[in-house]
């Protein structure tokens, strides 16, 4: 469906969420999103995939709906009932959701979360066929396999893992997999060992032929409720009770499901849930303990690994026909590109068509490139140390470098041609 909207498939990083029924897959996706978008009712499940495109510039979520008769509709997702109504509508062919997945930032490729039908839905085997068909089209990206901590080891999991394993092998391992063990909060730490459960799940996954699996225990429902509270979303009475119970559980380090570092250096804000006040930093720590943040970190790390981290050091050979400029732009675009950058490049190339550039201008251009290289390298070194927000300064450096080169060429052209 994304191609219909002019979105280049090569510019997408696909994160495909798969599971058998009752694993909490939709709740997990809602936790990543931070609000109720997808239905969590089994009877509402359909045999269609729903794609959620991450757009860091949007403040709300909206759905693009395509009907079987060719009609299209754009709907703001203001409440949790809208997608439920779409799920029950057999006249709908495809649904694309777009919004800002706040804890995941896009790099060279935009993240698209893909919710697939549960593969063992008893009411209809087309659910399994649809999911298997979609998996067979994947060339790269990430599969998030959600497992119910209390019900793993069923035959349906074996079938799904086998199918995924074959696809990963055929992709030359460009396709990655991450196992998310949900509902781990149902274990009583005083009576049952979470570590023992994780060891059993690890052995089960390995026995199905998947070597060295990455497995993260999480509580999707707790993470979702905490984020809804921080976002100021109104909770039902039942959700308020669950919120308070989960907060009592996850504020303790006994239930720290993730080794991901704590979020600190934030202002002491508070939110009101059911007439009781909770500090936001306590909620963030509780979210950290649910394991959801580690899942997001792995997605982000995969995105970072896919691209050059900083502008390389290159001394460009001054040659004829302005291919010198093309070489420089090529190096910059290898690190980062988007629509704004391409607009700058197109305008830049309009300046250099059929023009000879002064040698002094070449020296200035090389200096501009070298400065961009040093700035980006310094930023990425800091990023590697503290994993801060500095990474997002690199695209700005590239844009400014291209603008600087354009300015140098324009000034040089003014001198030569007196225009």
TrEMBL record:
UniProt GO cellular component terms: membrane
Primary location class: membrane
Domain of life: Bacteria
GO molecular function, one term: GTPase activity
Residue ranges occupied by any Dynamin N-terminal domain in the UniProt entry: 15-183
GO BP annotations, alphabetical order: mitochondrial fusion
Keywords: GTP-binding, Hydrolase, Membrane, Nucleotide-binding
Compartment(s): Membrane
PANTHER family reported for this sequence: SARCALUMENIN (PTHR10465:SF0), TRANSMEMBRANE GTPASE FZO1 (PTHR10465)
Protein name in the entry: GTPase Era
Organism: Clostridium vincentii
């Amino acid at each position: 469906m994304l191609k219909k909207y002019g979105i280049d498939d090569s510019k997408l990083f696909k994160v495909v969420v798969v599971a058998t029924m009752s694993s909490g897959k939709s709740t997990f996706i809602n936790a990543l999103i931070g609000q109720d978008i997808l239905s969590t009712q089994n009877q509402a499940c359909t045999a269609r995939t729903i794609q959620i495109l991450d757009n860091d510039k949007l403040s709300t979520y909206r759905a693009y709906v395509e009907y079987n008769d060719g009609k299209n509709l754009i709907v703001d997702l203001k409440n949790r009932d809208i997608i439920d109504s779409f799920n029950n509508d057999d006249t709908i062919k495809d649904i694309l959701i777009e919004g800002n997945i706040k804890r995941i930032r896009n790099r060279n490729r935009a993240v698209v979360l893909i919710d697939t039908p549960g593969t063992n839905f008893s009411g209809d085997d087309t659910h399994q066929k649809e999911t298997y068909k979609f998996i067979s089209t994947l060339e790269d990206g990430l599969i998030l396999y959600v497992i119910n901590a209390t019900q793993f080891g069923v035959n349906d999991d074996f079938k799904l893992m086998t199918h995924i394993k074959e696809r990963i092998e055929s992709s030359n391992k460009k396709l990655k997999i991450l196992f998310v063990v949900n509902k781990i909060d149902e274990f009583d730490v005083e009576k049952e060992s979470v570590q023992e459960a994780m060891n059993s799940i690890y052995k089960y996954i390995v026995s199905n032929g998947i070597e060295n699996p990455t497995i993260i225990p999480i509580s999707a429902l707790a993470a979702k409720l905490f984020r809804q509270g921080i976002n100021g979303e109104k909770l039902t009475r039942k959700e308020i009770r669950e919120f308070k119970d989960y907060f009592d559980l996850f504020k303790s380090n006994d239930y720290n499901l993730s080794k991901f570092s704590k979020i600190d250096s934030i202002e002491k804000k508070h939110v009101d849930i059911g007439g009781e006040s909770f500090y936001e930093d306590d909620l963030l720590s509780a979210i950290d303990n649910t394991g959801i943040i580690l899942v997001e970190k792995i997605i982000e790390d995969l995105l970072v690994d896919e691209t050059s981290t900083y502008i390389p050091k290159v001394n460009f050979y001054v040659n004829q026909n302005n291919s010198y400029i093309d070489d420089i732009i090529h190096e910059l675009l290898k690190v980062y590109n988007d629509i704004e950058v391409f607009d700058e490049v197109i305008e830049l190339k309009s300046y250099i068509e059929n023009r000879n550039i002064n040698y002094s201008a070449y020296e200035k251009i090389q200096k501009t490139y070298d400065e961009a290289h040093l700035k980006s390298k310094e930023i990425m070194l800091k990023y590697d140390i503290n994993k801060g927000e500095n990474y997002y300064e690199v695209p700005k450096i590239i844009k400014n470098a291209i603008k600087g080169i354009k300015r140098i060429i324009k000034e040089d052209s003014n001198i030569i041609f007196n225009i």
